Amino acid sequence: MVSRRNAPTLDAVVRALHAAFVEVLVAPAGLEVPISSVTLVDPDDLSAEAYTTAAAADLYLLAGVREADAVTWLEEVGTRSADLRPVAVMSKAAASSTLMQHAARVAGVALIAVHSQTRWDRLLSMVRGVLDQSNQYIVPTGPSDLGGVLGADTDLFGLAHTVAVLTRGMVSIEDERSHVLAYSASNDQADELRTLSILGREGPSEYLRRLEQWGVYDSVRRSDDVVEVPAHPDLGIRRRLVAGIRTTSSEPKLLGTLWIQEGQRPLADDAGSVLRGAAAVAARLITRIIEAPTNEALQIQRLLGARGGGVDVPSLAAALSIPTDGPAAVIGLAATGTTSATATSDLSTAIRLHASSFHRLSLVTTIGDRIYVLIPRTRAETSVESWTRQLLDRIDARTTVRLRAAVASPVAALGEVAAARTEVDRVLDGTSDSTGDRVTTLADSRTSVLLGEIVDMVAAHPTLQDPRMSALVEYDARTSSSMCESTRMYLTHYGDVRRAAAELHVHPNTLRYRVRRVEEITRTDLSDPAARLLMEIQLAVWARQART
After folding, report:
1. I want to staple 41 with a disulfide (CB 3.0 to 4.6 A). Which of 45, 121, 135, 166 is the partner?
2. Mean pLDDT confidence for 125-136
3. Cβ distance 120 to 143 under 8 Å?
4. How far apart are the C-alpha atoms of 150 and 156, rounded to whole Å?
5. Span 354-365, mean pLDDT?
6. In sequence order, which residues have a C-beta less than 8 Å from that of residue 290 and are 6 or more positions away?
7. What's the CA dihedral at 447, 453, 458, 459 to 10 degrees?
8. How does the average pLDDT of the chain come out, rounded?
9. H or E segment to which residue 288 belongs
């Protein structure tokens, strides 16, 4: 969210998107109204109670909402006070619905039609990008202005606009997976490849195959050269120039590509040099985006206590448009293996989409390699845990990343979410998914969490480690025996020799002999409860050190 004073207007947001994406149908207050926040809602969210208990976002994206439900909701919106009404609504059902258009006009809300093939997650991401980067674009008058314009504090959309003006083409900036990050305005000369790419779909398969065949992608991965891709009238594809967006490190990494499509007018003679310079600027901007969190992310992280110092909860809540009262929930998610920064970013975007569908005021941020979801004014505690399980199932079905989650709910008030995040981290640090249950709470896992922290403390302080345990470890190493593991299994089964021996696949008499030898080596009486407790803790430390 951005402050209303610095917020872009509805006109700026619409122009930043593509004509193939959106079309303004109704704008009772005009297009110069500020847009400072956006939220994605689904049919379950469209209840009067859910939307009148907190300040509304300026822009609502109605994902999967049918015409009849949207009309009913818009009619209800018209009865609210101005501060609880959205400024604008985007819907895929709007273009063909005169009822929706009439209801929006009466309610005083702008109505914007969204193309039926548009992906909601892509649209949400792009709108948020416009809000996060709401600087005014500087319009160059010629190629000589390139240095000053690109040296300004621009963003990817501003860069695309500038390059389009200088080259007389239509510009799109894509990441390394060919997902569109930003683009310039289009006209009726935009070809199918450009339109489908911006809509979040793949271009014609035959054309993409030819690009690979001609080595276009290999060229931009290997060098900074500008590659020309000729027109293909048979595929409806116009001429293009493309350059790789690469890091400037000793081992350059491809961050994405910058494309210029030729329209009715030929591209400028110096389009290649402009493109090469713009690719260097894009590399800095994309790196900045990757490394620096958005203003919203910083605010969420401060609320979760991850930025140090005091937390001004009322101010942060006001900036994030969330209530301070009522029970909240904090969910921490961690991958069971290592994941790249890009994969974590993709997961965060997907989780944000699902969380917004579950509760429209939910907030998502990434801290290190973990993703956190903050849900203010939660519903029943069981619904949060149930949704978290459904979320993991959805992530499993769509990615190869396996997540586990820790839930802190209910949290009495927003001022306590920082402490709740600390507890969530304790759960994630002290548990694994080896038990098969990947969603847990501190209450459910308090024993394993506290025991794990005790073991960590003992492992970190040599003075707390029993030298008699060292003698047993040394005996095993010297004789290639398994006294440590035998003792651990014996204590795990509360001294039940038969059950422990069965799990060790040895005769009960063999285990009895080993237990006597352990008592001799360590000079310990394992019939003493205190001795057994100490031995179990020392064995847990040994097992952890053995794994590392």
Report:
1. 45
2. 65
3. no
4. 10
5. 83
6. 341, 345
7. 120
8. 81
9. helix 271-291
In whole angstroms, how far apart are CA 195 and each of 72, 198, 200? 33, 5, 9
**Average of per-residue pLDDT across 515-542:** 90
Q: What is the pLDDT of residue 348?
A: 83
| Residue 503 burial (CB count, 10 A) | 11
CA dihedral 7, 8, 11, 14 (to 10 degrees): -110
CA count, 13 A, side-chain hemisphere, 436:
0
410 preceded by cis ω (within 30°)? yes
Cβ atoms within 10 Å of 310's Cβ, excluding its own: 7
Q: Provide the pLDDT for residue 434.
A: 55
534 close to 466: Cβ distance less than 8 angstroms: yes
Distance CA 6, CA 34 (A): 8
42-70 pLDDT, tens per residue? 776 665 444 444 445 789 999 888 899 99
Residue 191 to residue 233: CA distance in whole angstroms? 10
Are the CB atoms for 172 and 194 separated by under 8 Å? yes
Residue 480: which region, alpha, beta or left (left: phi > 0; alpha: psi -120 to 50)? left
Tokens 């047993």: give the residue: 472
Backbone angles phi, psi at 244, to 5 degrees: -75, 145
Neighbour-count burial of 501, counting CB atoms closer than 10 A to its CB (0-12 exposed, 13-18 middle, 19+ buried): buried
Among the listed residues 458, 460, 511, 501, the one whose alpha carbon sits nearest the alpha carbon of residue 481: 511
- Contact assessment for residue 164 and residue 278, using Cβ atoms and an 8 Å cutoff: no
**pLDDT of 147:** 45
Strand partners, 110: 88
Q: In this model, does residue 546 exceed pLDDT 80?
A: no
For residue 74, give the amino acid letter.
Answer: L
Range with top average pLDDT, 56-60, 70-74, 205-209, 286-290: 70-74
pLDDT tens-place string over residues 227-286: 998 888 877 788 999 999 988 776 778 888 999 989 888 999 889 988 988 898 888 888
pLDDT at 513: 93
- Amino acid type, 119: R
Q: Rounded CA gap, 19 and 100, in Å?
A: 21
89-127 pLDDT, tens per residue?
999 999 889 999 999 999 999 999 998 878 787 788 778
Q: Which helix (H) or strand (E) holds 74?
A: helix 67-77
Give the β-pairing of 403-411 and 439-441. parallel
User: What is the distance between the terminal CA atoms of the chain, rounded to a whole angstrom?
Assistant: 43
Q: What sign has the CA pseudo-torsion 301, 302, 307, 308?
A: negative
Cα 473 to its chain centre, rounded Å, is 45
